[in-house]
């Protein structure tokens, strides 16, 4: 019986090739979108879930109260992990980690005259007990005990030594700031997979970091990340309460508190409000999951509409089968067989489409996804296909099997009002979703345009920066003010400025596009002792403000023309407003234990993403090894000339070290990488949703024109014009379209307003966005319907009247 049903289904699909093609393309496109989104969502959900103790592994986060709320950061005191391991009986293991991002650039390994870039990470002795990285060479309990030894990844071992075998006991020469030196290799670990957010090549002992930075033994620092594995059966909520006041107990003037977050949750739940996780990347996972479901529903709606519209051509078939005794369930089975067959054919086409576009999809999403065609992937595809076939075919099967045989065979079957309403509702639903997608794309596009064009308060064009590098001095006196390091830095900057194509250059310390951190330890005459203002500090040297193109509001920038500016300070206008200082230039403030004179006030500029309002900040004059980054403004049209000159100078100063530089604009763009990917994906998926809906309208208009052939012929015989016939066939669709627009506008407005609230600086939801979307949907609808309408209107009236349709 099932075999016969499939045979009949196949014959019916071949019988009307236009109907089959429209359904095949629509369903295959919908399934392909769903599978692509499934691959992306699955990859996102599996990030950082590789640890065997995942259910008991937590990262300790820190909350700091500020005047504007609670700020949550992953950085904790250097003593926290060891204190937790020693004092908390509920902790099985605890480890402190200094990630590669702590450093401004990667380290360089020198081996037999060859140079290799690598990312270095520092970790405590229990690192491999906390994280399930495979240790290929070395004893898990012993490899982290020697603070003078390192572990390297198998990938790095192959790059440097040609093989991951027999490298234990060999040494690498490492070049990276204070940690330059020769280190013996104690072990080899497998390179972290793409499903890990922590990517590193070399693992150093955390005790070595503490030796170089003794401040790590002070509870006031916040450099490492701290991770714990709780003992089985531990109440995580109770433990959370237990550690909340640990910093305050050890540093009585601190108001900072601690809480735990499951390590594998942090990737997706990385946004915090009032000291607690409140969304993050998980919102994009949910968004695209909903988009996948909607696109698949649109494709199913197409199938339903086309199948019920085509039902008129199958009335007699259904009536005859019922007359000869076919029960209704066999008819339902037959029609479901057709939809399932169509669904499985579409799935095959969809998998081919996925394989074809996956490389481009990986480029857009920044991932490296590949369907493994294992049991999990195949079962997922089969489940989605089966569900699609049942959903798409259920209503047509019930509808077609419900015809009364007597009415069908007498030709007296009339469309019921309810049936027409369902079909119209499905069309409205399709185009409502399409309208929401189009408006969302327009809003996201405009917001990204704002991000690209907003005045940041400085000119980010033609700015590059790099780390100076250079020799290290053994005597601390060389780093004192006026010492040898300052002389070498000053000489280096002068040589940079003399390179053809270089407009100007200056040294600096902190991240300029996404600077976090700072201090609240400032006092000034008239300050309210009960108030607290958090300032962001930016360490810069002579000429930095001019190099960046930041505008002075009052006073002057740092300058050699006025003697030493070591005791000077420059604020932004927001800081001065918050402080309530009138005529600030010349006033003296107290910061970091010393007095500083305000010599200038700059206009507000953005040093964080547009998600944040501009915060109070100040420029701290820094002309030493802590501010050894060089910012260079290139002359327009001479970029290559200048970069070649900079590379020659750098290699002269740093023999054998590759010259690495970054454009400041690239750093700025990186702040919105996720939003840009969402914007790109939204455009593609919105376009596909509209195309699928248009295919349905094209098919519906074809069948409506076929159904009304005789009526059209009679109207033309009695003098109806081509235009009036086109209007007759199009007006129903236009009416449905207008209803869809009226529904889509308020829904999309609410959704996008909610999305825009995440930005401190955002585009307004203007009426022209809705007008453009409405006109675009109207154009697409008329384009889909007009071909069949015009074709029917210009056909021979005699042929139309004689047809059996």
List keywords for this structure.
single chain; 805 residues; alpha+beta; 13-stranded mixed sheet; 7-stranded mixed sheet; 16% strand
Helix-strand makeup class: alpha+beta
pLDDT < 50 runs, ≥5 residues: none
Rough outline: globular
What integer value in Å does the Rg equal?
Answer: 34 Å
The proportion of residues in beta strands is 15-25%
End-to-end C-alpha gap:
31 Å
Main sheet record: 13 strands, mixed
The total beta strand count reads 26
Helix content: 40-55%
Number of helices: 24
Instruction: Let me know the average pLDDT.
Output: 83
Describe, in short, the structure shown.
By secondary structure, the protein is of the alpha+beta class. It is built from 24 helices and 26 strands. Helix 9 runs parallel beside helix 12.
Explain the layout of strands and helices:
Elements: H1 2-15, H2 17-45, E1 57-66, E2 69-73, H3 80-87, E3 91-98, E4 107-111, E5 114-118, E6 120-123, H4 127-130, E7 135-137, E8 150-153, H5 154-161, E9 171-175, E10 181-189, E11 202-205, H6 206-212, E12 225-230, H7 236-243, H8 246-250, E13 257-262, E14 272-273, E15 276-277, H9 282-309, H10 315-323, H11 328-365, H12 375-401, H13 405-410, H14 417-453, E16 463-467, H15 484-497, E17 502-508, E18 522-523, E19 536-540, H16 544-548, E20 552-555, E21 568-572, H17 573-579, E22 588-591, E23 594-602, E24 617-621, E25 629-634, H18 639-653, E26 662-663, H19 664-670, H20 673-707, H21 709-717, H22 722-756, H23 767-793, H24 797-802
Parallel strand pairs: 6-11, 8-10, 19-24, 21-23
Antiparallel strand pairs: 1-2, 1-12, 1-13, 3-6, 3-12, 4-5, 4-9, 7-10, 8-11, 9-10, 14-15, 16-25, 16-26, 17-25, 18-22, 20-23, 21-24, 22-23
């Amino acid at each position: 019986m099932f075999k016969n049903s499939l045979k009949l289904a196949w014959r019916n699909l071949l019988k009307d090739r236009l109907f089959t093609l429209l359904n095949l393309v629509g369903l295959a496109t919908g399934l392909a979108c769903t599978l692509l989104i499934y691959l992306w969502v699955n990859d996102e959900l599996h990030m950082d879930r590789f640890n065997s103790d995942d259910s008991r592994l937590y990262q300790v986060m820190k909350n700091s109260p500020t005047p504007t709320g609670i700020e949550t950061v992953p950085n904790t005191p250097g003593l926290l992990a060891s204190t937790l391991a020693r004092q908390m009986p509920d902790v099985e293991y605890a480890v402190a980690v200094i990630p590669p991002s702590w450093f401004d650039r990667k380290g360089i390994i020198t081996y037999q005259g060859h140079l290799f870039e690598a990312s270095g990470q520092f970790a405590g002795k229990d690192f491999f007990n906390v994280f399930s990285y495979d240790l290929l060479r070395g004893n898990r309990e012993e490899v982290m005990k020697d603070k003078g030894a390192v572990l390297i990844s198998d990938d790095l071992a192959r790059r440097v030594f040609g093989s991951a075998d027999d490298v234990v006991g060999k040494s690498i020469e490492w070049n990276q700031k204070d940690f330059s030196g020769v280190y013996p290799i104690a072990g080899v670990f497998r390179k972290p997979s793409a499903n890990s957010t922590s990517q590193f090549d070399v693992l150093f002992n955390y005790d070595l970091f503490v030796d170089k930075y003794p401040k790590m033994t002070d509870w006031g620092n916040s450099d490492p990340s701290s991770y714990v594995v709780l003992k089985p059966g531990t109440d995580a909520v109770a433990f959370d309460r237990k550690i909340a006041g640990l910093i305050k107990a050890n540093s009585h003037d601190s108001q900072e508190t601690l809480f735990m977050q499951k390590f594998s949750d942090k990737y997706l739940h990385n946004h915090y409000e009032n000291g607690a996780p409140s969304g993050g990347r998980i919102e994009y996972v949910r968004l695209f999951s909903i988009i996948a479901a909607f696109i698949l529903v649109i494709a199913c709606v197409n199938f339903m509409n086309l199948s019920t519209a085509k039902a008129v051509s199958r009335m007699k078939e259904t009536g005859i089968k019922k007359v000869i005794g076919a029960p209704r369930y066999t008819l339902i089975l037959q029609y479901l067989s057709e939809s399932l067959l169509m669904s499985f054919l579409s799935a095959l086409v969809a998998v081919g489409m996925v394989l074809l576009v996956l490389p481009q999809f990986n480029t857009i999403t920044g991932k490296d996804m590949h369907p493994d065609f294992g049991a999990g992937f195949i079962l997922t595809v089969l489940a989605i296909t089966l569900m699609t076939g049942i959903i798409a075919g259920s209503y047509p099967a019930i509808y077609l099997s419900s015809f009364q045989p007597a009415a069908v065979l007498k030709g007296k079957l009339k469309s019921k009002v309810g049936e027409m309403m369902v079909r119209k509702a499905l069309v409205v639903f399709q185009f409502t979703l399409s309208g929401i997608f189009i408006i969302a794309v327009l809003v996201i596009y405009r917001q990204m345009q704002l991000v690209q064009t907003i005045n940041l308060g400085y000119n980010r064009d033609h700015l590059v920066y790099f780390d100076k590098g250079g020799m290290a001095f053994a005597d601390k006196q060389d780093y004192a003010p006026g010492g040898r390091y300052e002389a070498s830095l000053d000489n280096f900057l002068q040589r940079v400025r003399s390179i053809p194509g270089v407009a100007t250059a200056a040294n600096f310390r902190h991240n300029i596009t996404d600077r976090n951190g700072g201090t609240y330890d400032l006092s000034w005459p008239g300050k309210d002792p009960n108030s607290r203002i958090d300032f962001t500090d930016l360490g810069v040297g002579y000429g930095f403000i001019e190099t960046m193109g930041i505008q002075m509001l009052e006073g002057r920038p740092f300058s050699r023309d006025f003697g030493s500016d070591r005791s000077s300070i420059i604020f932004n206008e927001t800081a001065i407003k918050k402080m309530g200082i009138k005529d600030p230039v010349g006033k003296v403030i107290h910061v970091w234990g010393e007095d500083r004179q305000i010599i200038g006030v700059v206009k507000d500029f953005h040093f964080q993403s547009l998600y944040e309002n501009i915060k109070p900040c100040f420029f701290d004059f820094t002309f030493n090894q802590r501010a050894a980054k060089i910012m260079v403004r290139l002359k327009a049209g001479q970029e290559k000339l200048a970069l070649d000159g900079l590379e020659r100078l750098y290699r002269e100063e740093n023999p054998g070290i590759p010259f690495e530089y970054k454009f400041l604009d690239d750093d700025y763009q990186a702040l919105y990488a996720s939003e840009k990917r969402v914007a790109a994906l939204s455009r593609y998926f919105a376009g596909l949703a509209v195309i699928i809906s248009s295919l349905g309208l094209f098919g519906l208009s074809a069948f409506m024109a076929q159904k009304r052939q005789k009526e059209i012929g009679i109207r033309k015989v009695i003098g109806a014009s081509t235009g009036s016939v086109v209007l007759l066939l199009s007006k129903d669709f236009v009416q449905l379209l207008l209803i869809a627009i009226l529904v889509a506008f308020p829904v999309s407005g609410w959704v996008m307003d909610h999305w825009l609230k995440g930005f401190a600086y955002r585009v307004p939801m203007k009426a022209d966005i809705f007008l453009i979307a409405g006109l675009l949907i109207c154009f697409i609808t008329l384009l889909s319907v007009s071909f069949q309408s015009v074709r029917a209107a210009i056909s021979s009236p005699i042929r139309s009247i004689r047809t059996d349709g």
